[in-house]
User: Fold this.
Amino acid sequence: MSAGWIAVAGLGPGDEALVTPEVTAALAEATDVVGYIPYVARVHPRAGLVLHASDNRVELDRAALALDLAEQGRRVVIVSSGDPGVFAMASALFEALEARPEQQDTDIRVLPGITAMLAAAARAGAPLGHDFCAINLSDNLKPFAEVERRLRHAVRGGFAMAFYNPRSRARPHQFGRVLEILREDCEAERLILFARAVSTPEEEITCLPLAEATVEMADMRTVVIVGTAATRRVGRWVYTPRSVPA
Amino acid sequence: MSAGWIAVAGLGPGDEALVTPEVTAALAEATDVVGYIPYVARVHPRAGLVLHASDNRVELDRAALALDLAEQGRRVVIVSSGDPGVFAMASALFEALEARPEQQDTDIRVLPGITAMLAAAARAGAPLGHDFCAINLSDNLKPFAEVERRLRHAVRGGFAMAFYNPRSRARPHQFGRVLEILREDCEAERLILFARAVSTPEEEITCLPLAEATVEMADMRTVVIVGTAATRRVGRWVYTPRSVPA
Assistant:
């Protein structure tokens, strides 16, 4: 019987002070680390630890590799940025597991991490301080019409919103469409926050009225947060009040 | 000039292995800890550290106390369970700060933590593996009609959903109304997850079809997660696929 296992671990947004002790302990026990190149680069190399870095968009191959290694008795950490359950590797692993009924008793743990929207919100104040939603703007895995539909429900429901993967080189224009949709239903003063590379030396946080937002303010390393109609500034902070008046 | 500061810190869901090093460091430097009784009880007492524990529903008093202490040069950690920016103390602090223009340059940091829905999702698999929203079901600070409205938009938008504060002694029946609304628009097989006291010795995780859910399955320590139409089981896990077919 194999003693292999898989831990799908969230490394948080970048700062080592945001990595949980649980994740640090799993990495200390691992024989193998599997993940996207820049996330594997965040793991300290040591003798006996094999690093398997792969390119973007091969999530299922990565998950299959982890299952292969665990079957061989290896102790595998799949690393994700942020939280592994938020637009990251946990779903991909379970998708790969679904295709292997013979491995469904594999010892798997999902180790949560600080996801980008919550790190960004903390830096800015408390823009997600009331009901909110998280939407992946990429249409790699869903039609963009579905993104638009969700966006409209989020706005009309009065949710604060966090957008992951707002813009990439392959999709330079869709974020412009997102801004258009927001402007149809939100007032011009609605606050929007661009949080880039949060908790790293390249961190940049910009908060401005929706009317002044441009497509170029977002890139692959940005998480975008849109407040509710009640979101406001206090000093250098931005926050969403806890109460909704009757 | 005072060297006082305030850190609003997330202690995560309960397990010390889920407290970030950043939060641990802030607690080590603090002179005062302010918070709701059970959260302050999670802080290790030490000489020179004053613990100010208060009852539920006095968030603004607690924030005001922290601002008073910081003005006196104290180093104050306001402790929240989970993440301070998710239905917790960060918004209350900025609300209190708004009423004190003279203190708006107070040295404040918000230190993110592992919020309950992400800890619960990790224990169950990856039920929030695609677009999702977080709704506070309590009507302490908003009319219940607003909860209902948001719920309908969340369901119709195809979001996975996480519910905080689903039920309390003061509000024993509203969660029944929530289940009714869900049943109007969701299929009977829709998976719903009750995660109680995640990462503590009292942890209980139950996943079942919406048709079998009852009001009694939720209490004050429960976070409820409702999957999308695509959410499914694989082995002992439950996950939401990353893709939405065209």
